[in-house]
């Protein structure tokens, strides 16, 4: 079974997906993390966004693994734990543009399909229900007001020790929204058949319960 959770930055996808994966025993695939790894490799090689073809050449040398260690989801890039590094300010700045490079999207979507093969997964991203798995059994589109999303991301950053002001976070999210909605392939939009869940004034627990019920209803239908 594939559960696709799409939506903009700060809509609550990450947290809700983790909760539901634990509750329902589904494998959690954070597709944003795969784009973050490409952005990190770009920085490590001292490439800029102008070096598109060099970034594309990096792809075959990028090995990404998600592992659960001591109850925590960790991301490994070529064997190195990059869980924290991929959330840095520097990566945040370029990741949306990196993920907008068409060959990067095609390659990553294929990698994500491979990672999910034969498994029961819950996948969060921007284009899971529209492009990566258009036939996903359950499709959810999470949304929230932009100020609310910026507040959440700012708080999350503080907890993780990422040094960014609220205004910087808000500006970053607005820019990312624009970029994510205007991608040539896999642009952020509501997928056919997706259920829209607005999380603005809901607690994460309420959102998780709502989606859990949708998934359970769907499972009963089969
Ligand atoms: O969800 P996130 O903030 O970790 O995602 C990082 C970036 O990757 C974000 O700018 C959108 C992009 N992304 C995407 O284009 N498609 C996905 N399936 C997941 C993320």
- Write down how many β-strands occur, each being a DSSP E stretch of 2 or more residues: 8
Ligand catalogue = 2'-deoxycytidine-5'-monophosphate
Strand order of the largest sheet: 2-6-1-7-8
Radius of gyration: 17 Å
Coarse shape: globular
CATH class: Alpha Beta
Looking at CATH, the homologous superfamily is P-loop containing nucleotide triphosphate hydrolases
CATH-derived topology:
Rossmann fold
Domain count: 1
Structural class category? alpha/beta
The helicity comes to 40-55%
Determine the strand fraction and express it as a percent band: 15-25%
Describe the 3D structure.
With 222 residues, the chain is of the alpha/beta class. It has a single domain (2-211), classed as P-loop containing nucleotide triphosphate hydrolases (Rossmann fold, 3-Layer(aba) Sandwich), CATH 3.40.50. The protein is built from nine helices and eight strands. Strands 2-6-1-7-8 form a five-stranded parallel beta sheet, with helices on both faces. Strand 3 (64-69) and strand 4 form a beta hairpin. It is globular. 2'-deoxycytidine-5'-monophosphate (DC) is lined by residues 9, 31-32, 35-36, 95-96, 99, 125-128, 176, 180, 186.
């Amino acid at each position: 079974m594939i559960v696709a959770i799409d939506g903009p930055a700060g809509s609550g996808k990450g947290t809700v997906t983790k909760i539901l994966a634990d509750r329902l025993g589904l494998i959690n695939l954070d597709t944003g993390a795969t784009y973050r790894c490409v952005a990190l490799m770009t920085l490590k090689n001292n490439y800029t966004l102008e070096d598109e073809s060099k970034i594309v050449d990096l792809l075959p040398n990028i090995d990404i693994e998600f592992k659960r260690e001591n109850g925590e989801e960790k991301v490994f890039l070529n064997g190195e734990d990059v869980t924290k590094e991929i959330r840095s300010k520097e990566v945040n700045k370029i990741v949306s543009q990196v993920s907008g490079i068409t060959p990067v999207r095609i390659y990553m979507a294929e990698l994500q399909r491979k990672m999910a093969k034969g498994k029961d997964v819950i996948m969060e991203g921007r284009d899971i229900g529209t492009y990566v798995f258009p036939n996903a059994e359950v499709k959810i589109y999470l949304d929230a007001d932009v100020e609310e999303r910026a507040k959440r991301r700012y708080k999350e950053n503080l907890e993780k020790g990422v040094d960014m002001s609220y205004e910087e976070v808000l500006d970053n999210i607005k820019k990312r929204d624009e970029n994510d909605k205007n991608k040539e392939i896999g642009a952020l939009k509501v997928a056919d058949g997706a259920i829209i869940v607005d999380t603005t004034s809901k607690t994460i627990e309420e959102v998780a319960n709502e989606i859990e019920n949708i998934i359970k209803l769907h499972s009963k239908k089969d």
